[in-house]
Amino acid sequence: MAKGYWVSVYPAISDPETLIAYNKLARPAVQAGGGRVLARDGRVVAHEAGITQRVVLIEFDSFEQAVAAYESEAYQDALVALPDGFQRDFRIIEGID
């Protein structure tokens, strides 16, 4: 079965402190959904229209599990905690078997 991944790219973060409430809720929601953080805030080399700001990669055992974790009540509560006007490019993708 192909794994599932959350890929989040944050185009700009003017005040990282505004993410504290989201992070406090998101971390346990992701773990409860079976997610494992593979990369977060590490070094980035961007090409073409790439963005070097915060990039987060989370792995799940399946694509379905990744979608279910996003749709979970716990993660939806975390999303409410994102600051107003906050932008990110978030995708759920299926890995290659």
UniProtKB/TrEMBL annotation:
Residues 3-96 form the DUF1330 domain. Pfam families: DUF1330. SUPFAM superfamilies: Dimeric alpha+beta barrel. This is DUF1330 domain-containing protein. It comes from Fodinicola feengrottensis.
